[in-house]
Amino acid sequence: MSARVAGLATLTIDQIRTGLRARQFSAVEVAQSALEFAQAENPKTNAYLHFSPERALAAAERADRKVAAGEDPGTLAGVPVAVKDVIVTRGLRTTCGSRLLERYIPPYDATAVVRLEQAGAMIIGKANCDEFAMGSSTENSAFGPVKNPVALDRVPGGSSGGSAAAVAQGTAVVALGSDTGGSIRQPASFCGVVGVTPTYGRVSRYGLVAFASSLDHIGPFSRTVRDSALVLHSIAGRDECDSTSAFAPVPDYLAELDGRVAGLKIGVPREYFEGLTSESGDLIHKGIDVLKKLGCQVRDISLPATKYAVACYYIIATAEASSNLARYDGVRYTTRAASDTLSDMYRSTRGEGFGAECKRRIMLGTYVLSHGYYDAYYLKAQRVRALIAQDFKNAFAEVDAIVAPVSPFPAFKLGEKLDDPLEMYLSDIYTITGDLAGIPCMSVPCGKTAAGLPVGMQILTRHFDETGMFRLADAFEKAGGFTG
Amino acid sequence: MKITETEVRYVADLANLKLTDQEIARLSKDLDEILTHIDTLSELDTSNVQPMAQVLYEADETATLREDRERPPLSNDAALANAPLAGGGYYKVPKVIER
To answer: Any idea what DSSP says for residue B75?
Structure first.
């Protein structure tokens, strides 16, 4: 590692900007140091599926030229980024953690990637993930599981486990992930970093390989709240390539990180504290005490439909997935099983190509949409989803933010829950509600267990109120001293 | 039993998935457990609840329609670059129609 980029593993975006401006180091030096460090660390964690040195160095050279010419190189200039491998990158292999896309080279960039690079960011590699983002542990990657950098015998969470691990081990300063049922917040919690699921539609999904379209989000990982706010600001906003992207103006999140949280009304939903391990619960309660000391008014609230969220989610998400994954049939996307007939080609390609979890979800989704079951399952789930969204609406009439756990437990051991899919699904209970309602939510570090495992606290706010969410998280981070 | 092996085979057929007997057995068990959990939804009376088909929609009906203007599309070569088998500017697949 270049001596001039010492402390890479704890750098922030602001420190990189200051260092570039003071000619303390160049963007090329940061890129080289990050690539070297990431490649050296990767055998331990398997956080990256592949690296993109040429692309990172080209971005670094652009930034350095701008700095030399006295131009603004962009808010993310010289910032090493890991991008989850379900987000397409032009000319750079994008596998979705699947054998089916082992050789897929996308012909275009996702909008979030375009915007990151326009802001000066340097993409150093693609982060490992559960196959097609389906999983809660990153053990479903066809290219091997990711190990939690905090405890190598444990999972990093999932499905964006590689993105969380990259930021936690310090090989990337920030990362992009995707969240459909908790796939950003839960790994952020398990790895002790910040992870943000913005409002549905806040960030364009153009170029995010679709899992469940009414639930999919792109969002950032970082080591500080401020860095996530900076990244979200760069990638958010309407995109005509994604008709579901929102027109809502994107505020200057940084200007709002002013620590003014005294008097904020915070709701603590009692349903989110049933079935939580006592250690995780204690840490969240200590976190809530920090908010009280900051002058927040904390009150008990109820979100009564919570217990139905897992059932609702696993109908909607799998139904949409079964449809979205129909395209991997051996015709267009690189992999085809040898066969004599068209029908056998479809069936064999999919049967051989998809891993066990994808098959399980495609089967469940196909079943709930099949003839005679639509009303009983999909339509019923959409009605329950409306109740869950209404719960939040009612709550936000009374409070400004909701604070809750992210996961019932900290990072578990590799292999521990792999044989019990229902148990794995049930562990998503605290995160899927935010996705179902489409509200912004994030995980912010909230301390560690006696065994040293990080626990994240979840903050949820009203639609498009990322500002309020960041303000609270930033004040909490500074008061709690849980970062690092 | 919420789902039988016969039904699992039928659904696999709908989903165009070739599965081994072992996979069918495992999926029957897994799907049965998951569907049993999903049954808890029947406790809820939702007869007066409108299904939530849109997550968020606060713009005019035509707001998402962009201006109609020419844009160069993906070239034929680029579009076919990932094809397992291509020829003559098309995707090639096993013969569907007998001569």
So the answer is: -
Interface test with A, best of B20, B39, B44 (most A CBs within 10 A): B44
Find the CB nearest A363 among B15, B37, B50: B15
- The reply to whether A341 touches chain B by the CB within 8 Å rule is yes
Residues of A taking part in catalysis: 84, 159, 183
Q: What is the pLDDT of residues A134-167, one digit of tens each?
A: 999 999 999 999 999 999 999 999 999 999 999 9
User: Hey, which bits of A180-287 come out as E strands?
Assistant: 194-197, 217-222, 265-269
**B5-40 CATH:** 1.10.20
Q: Is A177 within 8 Å of A164 (Cβ atoms)?
A: yes
Q: Where are the domains of chain B?
A: 5-40
Global pTM reads 0.97
What DSSP string describes A252-267?
-GGGG-S---TT-EEE
Measured from the Cβ of residue B78, the count of other Cβ atoms closer than 10 Å reads 14
Three-class SS of residue A326? helix
The predicted-structure confidence for A165-203, as pLDDT tens digits, reads as follows 999 999 999 999 999 999 999 999 999 999 999 999 999
Q: Does B11 contact A345 at a Cβ distance shorter than 8 Å?
A: no
Residues 183-212 of A with CB under 8 A from B: 199-201
Q: Is the pLDDT of residue A3 over 60?
A: no
> What's the CATH class of domain A3-256?
alpha beta
Question: Judging by DSSP bridges, how do beta strands A194-197 and A441-448 pair with one another?
Answer: antiparallel
